[in-house]
Amino acid sequence: MKTDSNAYLTFALGDEKFAIPVDHVQEVVEFGQVTKVPNAPLYMLGIINLRGRVLPLLDTKLKLGLTSTDRTKKSRIMVLDITTTDDKNLQIGATVDVAREVVEISANEIQEAPEFENLKTTAPITGIVNRQGDITLIMDITRVFSVSEVLELNRSLN
Amino acid sequence: MLSAMDSNQKRFVEDALDLLNELDEGLLQLEANPQASAPLEQVFRTMHTIKGGANMFGFENIGELAHHLETLYDLVRQGKMPVSDGLISITLHAFDKVRDLLQEKDASKIANAESLKDHLKIAVQFLKSVETESASSVSNGSNSAITKDELATFFIRVSPTISMTPDGNHPLVFIIQDLEALGTAKTFCYKRGDATVIHWDIFLSTTTAQPEIESYFLFVENECKVEYSKLLASDLFSSDEFRQFIEQFEAAPVTVDVLQEVVKKLAATVENKTEHEAETEEPNAAGKKKFNDTYIKVSKRKIDDLLNWISELIILQAQLVNATSHINSVEITEVTEQLEMITSRLRDTSLEIGLVPIETLVTKFKRLVRDLSKTLNKKVNFLSEGAETEMDKDVIELMAEPMIHIIRNCIDHGIESPADRKMMGKSEHGTVKLKAFNSSSYVNIIISDDGKGINRESVLKKAIERGLVTADAVLTEEETLSLIFHPGLSTASTVSDVSGRGVGMDVVKQKINDLRGYVSIKSTPGKGTSIHIKLPLSRSIIEGLLVKVEETRYVVPLNVIDRIDRISYDTLIRDNHVNKTVVVNEEILPVFSLRKKFHNETAVPKTTDIISVTVNGVKKGIAVDRIEGKMQTVMKPLGDVYQHQDFIAGSTILGDGSLALVLDPARLFQLSEN
Amino acid sequence: MKKTILVVDDFASIRDFVCETLQRKGYETLGASNGNEAFKVLTEKNDSINLVLTDYNMPDCTGFELLKKIKENPAVSKVPVVFLTTESNPDKMRSAKEAGLSAWIKKPYRSETFFAQIENAISNG
Q: What pLDDT, in 10s, does the model give residues C51-64?
């Protein structure tokens, strides 16, 4: 877990603002052609061609159990390189509604995330940053896309 | 207590398994030629290397065993003991045990293994029984003739017998340039007043052997005279004195005697240098010298990354050609042509990177044939041709078992007993031959025997009995023989321990199909049988039909396709609903409709193309909107995330940057059965 | 008059690529995907083919077998034959030379060597 850097990429899913450590993010790209792979769970949107690399594209909102909304001009794909909780190295694309800036968040700004009832998401949150009412939820992306979970869901569909 | 292996130990195990293969090869050669010194040296050297590594990485029990056996072979080298059947056998068995042990993942299990103790005892007893002095002195590394790559310095004088200029167009000019590229070279060109060449003098240090250097001039023999002189068996260019010495020949050519004198003097200094380098060299480097090639281990991921970039480069280059095709510029055209040539060579080279010679398999087979023929009391020779042919490393591992099965069949069911063979006028020794060669982007492997061949009537009879064909069916020779690959057909009238029930051939065919290869069988009763396997050179190269269903493109691998037809979409829906089949080529064919399964059925096309494939012996159709054409391209895996969508073997990037999904027909059909 | 080269290789894209390379240099080309087909084409069009450029390793009829066929048939034996191959075994090269091969071009090749060898083979047989 590389937590030395305090840089986080922020993005929006629906109304909520999230942040993940920049270490996990290779780049942010616009939507291009998505080729759907049949017989897969809904949140697995398909595969994309990123300059000669073939990456699976996952719908982050759907994976988190949020209702999916239509793509807009602002929708982006985060190209992630993560080591999941089951020790697998994954390179995937994950969709976001709006990609925002990279910000510095120091450790002492991060408060523990209590069980928020009004947190409309089941996302694994490791902390909250509240800057004068501007709330950012720090997400543990490695848990979101843990491969075994993906496979479980996958299997139950087949 | 489980102790996982550290990376050094893992590396040692990998290397050791390779070495054990080489050891087998050497032992088998030694068994065939007990007087030969080269296999003896190889065996000794290999055991020495295994010993060293084992001791260094915590496997002292293996080291000890290797040490004792090495001592025995040292005695042979000294002429104090002959090579005997017994010696070879105990060595083979001992290292078989080591090989088994090394498959363990737990380092402490290997280190504490009791099983080696027996072999150790045997080795020690053998040693004692040979009446010699105690084996206290084991030669150290420098005596064991570890040969480096054969680096040598040559002097070559090329005198054209027709008139040519050094900037002319005669092939000789370019041959000399090609020669210079073989190593370190300095060339002097001496011309007449009219600028024609009198002769070239080339000083060249290279690892290329002299016969190969000479072969460069083979086809211009009528137009020049070539004199060769091997100056020294090491690199003279490493000596500054030499470099300075030859500068003077810019003005006027050297005379060969002067050259020899100087070389003698310089030789002493140069040889000291290279010997010093040899002592610090790793003993491992000697192992692969046969091919005048040095090997390095590279992580597979680096290779995959490299291949990815190269594929992208090829697409880009094609786009560049497209974009500039309307521009009328000689310069641009020349550059794009060069670029095309280079990218195509890049692609060829990158494909070759994952390839290794099938030698290791050949050694396994030699061993198998030897052991089997002893067990079955048959006399069998194993011949191989083309062991240097290269194949994808993973494919070699996957094909090992199927080929072992085929060879077992050859010896068990094919080759007759020595008595029977004699009666038929054949030599008592049967032959099993493995021939391997490349053709375009495939590797061909032909395994043949000169045994009794396949009894076609018996095959046909069994097939009729099992209901695989109707009693009145008329089959060609080829069709009858290919029944052998049908699951549920066994021609072995007795189940032999050795090759099992003989139903393995269907598994063999399936494995080959999975690798997108082809297999066919030919046989002449009384003369023998041969099985021809054809496998794509690279697992990631796909040859298939590009098809479209709605907006998605798929690729159907070529090797399972029998034929294609077009029918109206209405027919498909109607018939499919009733009994899920259509009639194609007067046969009833169950059809899997990609559109129905994976896409929606609104806005359907008027006609649909049906691709007939044979998978696991069963004919089925795949219905697509339209077949767009045949293609060959690099396939990329989808990755862990899509593990469960295994009916898609991977994806490929098309010329326009879009992606096509490569189908795995066998797994595709399993979907419809759920 | 343009010279015509018969290119033989069982791999279509290599064949096409070599033909294109030759065409850009001003040669006419014909293609064949195996030795037998090549021999047939050669006997049918023997007067108009100036050179046969073939791969070595091909199934059914290797480049070497094609070479022998050509040189043993008086109607077409004068046509020069050149190998274009990754093979570099000196013994094989010698056997081929003795069988009448005009030149042996190793892959990968530099374009200058390639064209120089081909022109030389066409002019001097």
A: 999 988 776 788 89
